[in-house]
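cron nightly-structures :: item 1 of 1
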Amino acid sequence: MISCNQENVWSKQDKRWSLAVLGVDKEGSVLFILSETPYSGYDFNNVLLSLPLSIFNGTYLEGGPEASLYFSAAGMELEKAGIYGTGLNGSVVRSGAYPIPNVIGITRKPH
């Protein structure tokens, strides 16, 4: 989605959906990003590039209702699920979180 030269590599389009993105900033920190708000990939890249994140690489992981984020650590739990842009009557179509087929796990490095 975003090249290592901080360039938006997606084409403009009208379709919008929630997005799950894996990014890296200039300091090497990994960024797990979920936008529940529907955007086109092109527009969302421009939002990310406008933020003070110094994101220099962004990879599309999933979109629509399959895009999700689950986090659990130190007694804190967060679960978010994506949506399609809009239904036929203009309302948001939300189905809740789908079963997760792919997981990116994180553990602390021993010192």
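cron nightly-structures :: done
The helical segments are 41-50.
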